[in-house]
Please model this.
Amino acid sequence: MRVLRVGLDALLVELDDADETMAFHAELQRRRAASQLPPVTEVVPAERTVLLDGVADPEALAAELADWHVPPLRATSDETVTIPVRYDGADVAEVAALWGVAEEEVARIHSATEFRVAFSGFAPGFGYLTGLPERYRVPRRAVPRPAVPTGAIALAGRYTGAYPRSSPGGWQLIGHTDAVLWDPSRERAALFSPGTRVRFVIEEA
Amino acid sequence: MTVTVMSAGLLTTVQDLGRPGHAHLGVPRSGALDQPAHRLANRLVGNPATAATLETTVLGCAVRVDRAVTVAVAGAPCAVRVDGRPAAWAAPVRLPAGALLEVGAATRGVRSYVAFAGGIAAAPVLGSRSTDLLSGLGPAPLAPGDALPLGEPVGPAAGADVVPAPAPPDPLLLPVLFGPRDDWFTARSLAVLTGSGYRVSPTSNRIGLRLDGPPLERAREGELPSEGMVLGAVQVPPDGRPVVFLADHPTTGGYPVIGVVPAAALPAVAQAAPGTPVRFTPVGRR
Model:
């Protein structure tokens, strides 16, 4: 773990890999919920870092973090969000070819995987989900689409994502869901908040 | 009580103190770019600082009210007219029912703030009424014909003995704390950032202050994994020209941040017109 100062009142905690980052974020959330963390305005996990913004005494917190013992992320009984998916995305054939499997295998492999939201970004409620084994990594499309439909389920690199609203996007589309991924009037505005476990289930057409 | 938009100028949005605390969901903080001006306008009409005002850009706006209400215009100085007659700037002004309020083009600076007693009562999203241009949360930028509800006035309009009207920043002096990714840039680039002249680019907006000037060189190649971004972060995209992140900035980003401009220096950014010279002053390394 390496702690970098950011401006006057923020810290960027750099971890060795994505798993360590998720474990550190889980530990932060645990301590925050237990009032064992000094007040911070924002806790923003990302791929290999967690940003702590709006920290009253960043120097003191940086010193404290260095002494933390962070347990590895456990396969706990955390709440799992279930998302019904029709695996009819425009890039299913291409993904199947990249994976070296039959087209119908894409749905089976993706829906059999247990995902976790590593972090958010790009747009409100857009989550970067990890869980697919390394061999299923796919590149982004060479030419991004000007408009990816709302609810599109997509792949890029080591991540799966779902588009809360239509936007430009370069990820490979494998399906879509009618689940409302983002609704700021709902108590839980984002279905995919960092740390949440996610299962996709095949919805027959 | 309703405010009807007659003219929205170049860009007029609803702003309050923003929606901090949701960055982990990909939600920008948003809020008034010139917060001291927003707070002053609210104070002049008896509102708490949390009340929503209108933030105009360069060309002002014009609105009609259906009931009598007190308003105040602060921020960038501009001509204020009520039914065609000159009215006070940076002071409480009583509008009769049916009056037309014209907020003129900024004579200096960029952004004026229009507070109405009771505040703009658009529906809050995640606790804020701010328009967020990046992610489309909050009320859409105003358009002629839009009708906005007003809240109930809560306090008496407050006068002010002295209303500071800061001159527009020329040059715009921006203190910068290097880090967290200054080691991604050559030593020469750090000197270029603080030693040479940049100018405010006309492509600047509420997301970022974009700068024209010499590009900064990377000391290392490759991609930085996406990471959390703070307000005032000086991010350097592949073209090498720094961008200072403002209220509607994305909450995570993939380009290295060479330094951070402390929040106290950002209200001046809100009033820096395109072409304004910019000078970064190093105030240390973090």
